[in-house]
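fold-stage: in
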Amino acid sequence: MLNKYPLWKTLMVAMIVALGALYATPNLYGESPAVQVSGLRGVEADAATLDSVKAHLEESKLSYDSIALEKGQILTRFNNTEEQLKARDVLDDKLGKKFSVALNLTPNTPDWLAAIGGSPMKLGLDLSGGVSFLMEVNMKEAINKAKVGMVSDFRGDLRNEKIRYRSVKEANNSVVVVFRKIEDLEAGQSLLKKRYRDLLLSTDDDTLTLTAKMTEQKLKEIREYALQQNITIIRNRVNELGVAEPLVQRQGKKHIVIELPGVQDTAKAKEILNATATIEFRLVDTEGDLSNAINGRVPANSILLTDKDGRPSLLKKRVMLTGDHITDAKSGFDEYSRPQVNISLDSAGGSKMSSGTKSNIGKPMATVFIEYKATDKKDAEGNIIFEKNQEIISIATIQSRLGKTFRITGAGSAAEAHNLALLLRAGALIAPITIVEERTVGPTLGAENVKLGFEAILMGFGLVFIFMMIYYRAFGVVANLALGANLVLIVGVMSMIPGATLTLPGMAGIVLTVGMAVDANVLIFERIREEMREGKTIQQSIHQGYEAAFSTIIDANITTLIAALILFAIGTGPVKGFAVTLSIGIITSMFTSVVASRTVVNAVWGGKRLDKLSI
């Protein structure tokens, strides 16, 4: 029988639309202002912290809608932003330095809906607001780090060529090498001049010294490299956080702008982005006197460091390997269920670790965690002064020669091991950075954009609805139902996809999709009219109208979809947001305009003897 779907097919179409409507529902519940308390450096909030938060809020006579401890974090919802801001200030003052207190907007999705994965669409910074950071790169530390690298490279090159020297030290923007003999000085100058063409070399035969000075061009390259590498590493860290539609770009000579739309954990974002963490591997000085070192008499070639429990150890100054050679790091558990971090090195790092451990089997080696923290002080050039914190993670005996892959234990809790692996995997920053400006994009701009965007969508839908009902009568109602289903499916799909984010350009993509969806129905309806004018029966006209128009609709939508996919692949920011909604809209519009609308037409008019058709 013409124009008659089997029951299973009708139910399947209805189920798809209903599923889309179900997952679009969370967008109707809105969001509540909230304050989130998160631990720093892997510390997790517990029941005692929850009681403390409640006590501080009650003491300040601040009422809240709900409070919950979830996944080591405390989330407190409030009825208005005024209470939220007051609570943030109170908790930030009372909880000390172990916890970070951040503002959030949390969805009011019912528990039953959240249990099946329902959540509202993520909105971009232009719609929902979010956090914008202006970060400053410490260029002085970048140059210092480059000098340390030069000292290490000079020592290695001279040692490999068996050229004897007394010392290799840093001095201003240069490195000074003191040799033992004039022959060594000449050989060293020849070697270093050949390998480091971007340095200015000068010698003093009387003192047997060679000075390698960085040129202005070299200093400029170091600063540029530090900025670009930090941008790349921060992008990696943002990706680790799972933030959709982020913006990371340079501003001027030493600043980076980061925009994180709709972040749900601003505390963790600040901790991860601002962290300048890496690790170093050093041999333990077993020959030095630890008690003398504790009393201030540290040997010239050693340093005194402590672990997180405050236990001191004497370590060699010479670094076996730095975190710059780490290519991958994953947290896990060892055979005794203790947290560990599995590390992979690049080829150069593997060679250094192999040669460093080959002659030290049976000796203890320390893993040192290094972190730079910004202080309130600035140097003469206006750069922020950073405080270098070093902490021993673990000390283990070298059992065998290590290579490109190995593991470290003693990182603390599973959360601390995970956090350390994340930082090492994303990359150690070339130079310390600090947040010099943190700007929360308020809801006013976002609310206005959302309001205007939805007004544009509703206006577009309304005008199309009216036109279709007047021009195509009963079939116009079918087209309008298909349009409504299309909008519901777009919202539902956007809500289900974890990385999909609705931006203002994305709203423009939805409006464009409305017009394209109507085009498909117009093609079908006009073809039905044409078939009826040629004298075919109504059922034959409906059947032929859908069949003949299908290939045209597919061709037109596929070409547009290809263009949208290209925009998504090569575009960034707003362009990507537009491409996402356009791509989803094209796919859903083909389903609703052809399949869903024909299901309704078949249910109402299919298989019946009709003398006229309201089209």
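fold-stage: in (second)
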Amino acid sequence: MSKTIAKADIDFEKELWDAANELRGAVSENNYKNYILPLVFLKHLSERYDIVHDEIADLLKDPKSDYYTSDKEEINYVLEDRDEYRSRNTFVVPKKASWNYLKDNAEQDDIKVIIDDAFDVIQDLLTDHNPQLNNLLPRIFVRSELSAKQTAGIINLLSHTKFSEKENPESDILGRIYEFYIGRFAMAEGSGAGQFFTPGSIVRLLVEILEPYKGRIFDPACGSGGMFVQSLKFINEHGGNKNDISIYGQEMTAQTLRLCLMNLLLRDLSFDIKMGNSLLDDKFPQLKADYIIANPPFNVSNWHPEDLPEGDPRLFGPKEEFTTDGSANYMWMQTFWHHLSDTGTAGIVMANGAMTSNTKGEKNVRQHMVDNSMIDCIVRMPDKLFLTTGIPACLFILSKNRDGKDGQHRERNNEILFLDASKMGTMTSRKLRVFSDADVNKIADTYHNWRSVTSSGVEKQSGVEKQSGVEKQSGVENTYKDVDGFSKAATLAEVQKQDYKLTPGIYVGTEAEEDDGILFEDKMEGLKATLLTQFEKSELLKKQIVANFEKL
């Protein structure tokens, strides 16, 4: 059984704030991450080389290993063989480009030159491996206003074990650092609401819902690559093979694109990531993906739909009727649908307003999607899931696999599943809520059972254990049943009757309250007694306050 603890991401806010203080005055706030992230990336490559080097050295000493040898020349040759390291997803990192070398020389007056020279060495390795990685580590320290002392301070801070991939192999450290600096210095960054790193528990939920075991995975707003990182974790946890997936992504910000490439390179994934505005400059016009996982910028206005070509193949109809300059939300929807394969499924994070917007260019698209059976599921999420925006969000699950012809899922063209998860999640701090494993499993299992059974609303059978809207039967297929306040499989006619509003609360109703067995009269007596006691305490407190005032 899965643990039900809430998993917050690694906590290194203090160290990152200290690093920001080292940069303050010499680097603009919106550029803090541009200095920190490349150093962390170099640190991870260096750590990985050290780990693999030690693994190979142990094999060379082990008489039971095929690598075993006592020939010193052979040992040195194998320990320096680039192919040995590439086969283990790392590079031979020369001493002068290693993290230990930077740390040992952090107090030198020319430390900025030492860092940029290390970047050059690593960059040559990356470009030789994949030309798409060119300019991943530009020389930025020598040209900066940072002093040698400030630079040394940053290196010492990042040497903390919290920033070690070796010590924290499951954490998306690069992504979390990016989120911290974007969130803390959002005004300096100038980013619109919704342009942010997606928290790990939301990404995990999307991936658990979609189950991307194999095929083409596409994110046309890929940011730091967190969706891809979590997809790989899912594959590893379920015994899959990362060679069975191909990654495609598009990102319009150069520095964020670099971060995405760093993330994918560290995980040795097959990828094709391009730079550009996915709405107006689609770099993958012919791509049909098996899975789309995305968190596009919310509510982007003034995105210039007039620049779309006439007859853009992504549009469901005339662009004057199916776009609006007030928000790009539903242009994203049309883009996602266009890029799905014949059996593809998309999971999208959206602002809550997308579920009910009445703007012509948005409602027309939403109505078209409902009428043409494009929407599989809507999930309303709780607040405070994002550190960087207060905009409430939901999930749209779109699918071209609703006809039941794949042999794995039932026909559900006339239904949409609505899930209200607004009361789920656990507060891990005053500002942040995360989904626990139990939360993720409840939502994902409910969706999977709904789309996999022979019919919705299956009657409860003997031997059934009902848990959170999912009925688990011993020896037979899981079945789905509506749960008041949480889940409802609504017909398209019901949605049309509600003027195409997609807010789950309209359909799932109110959660049934459990009877605690206490008579109403007894409850009232208890409440009355409590209230009278509180009144007495209030009067006493008032007298004490008045007496204190008189002594002044």
